[in-house]
Amino acid sequence: MIKGINKTTLVDYPGELACTIFIAGCNLRCGYCYNSDLVFNIHKIPTIKEEEVIDFLALRRKYLDGVCITGGEPTLFKDIIPLIKKIKKLCYKIKLDTNGTNPTILKELFREKLLDYIAMDVKASLQSYLKVAGIRNMGAKIKESITLIKESGVKYEFRTTIVPDVIDENEMEKISRTIQGADQFFIQQFRPDNKTINPRYSTMEPQQISVFYRYKSIAEKYCKHVGIRNIDNWPSLVEKV
Ligand code: SF4
What we know:
32% helix; binds iron/sulfur cluster; 9 helices; alpha/beta
């Protein structure tokens, strides 16, 4: 299920020179998702053998410090734990990106001390997951993952993509309350793309930058550090502030 490697990244693993491994398959259907090939067309993308990945990482150990494991949703991959153990044996730091729908695997990963950083997407308020991520009855699992992550002792962040027609001030208040007390929360710019799962997001204009600062001040009532990401890609929206 390993479908890609970005051999060097300065942005996927905060503070570390890393590479990123892409694992296919996801249980959510976020309309704005631009990784739709990793969600739907997983058998069309060639699989990279695990041995190849491990060999590559062994050769790069001198140059890289971390490995970011992303998706899709990596916790759905049945061999995620053995894979991480093999990477850990090479003395890499591991960052996991997750949608938080699989607290059972997270518990195991924390118990075995396999993670050095975890980033969980909080798609929306718990009541809005059906609208945003196309899934019902996920609230309890999302809440459980949030609690596990906060109590794990592992460095973490929660993050929310500001999808213009979904995230408003009310949603931001509810999301921030759900992750109350979080060490780090990032709000990030939505990116229109011709591969989005729901085509209407392919041409939707991202949210104006001034709105990000309003949302940041809402989240700051609840979280210790709130950051804004990816707004630099949209200079045209800055002029509207
Ligand atoms: S954006 Fe949503 S659908 Fe796409 S990979 Fe992430 S969780 Fe899955």
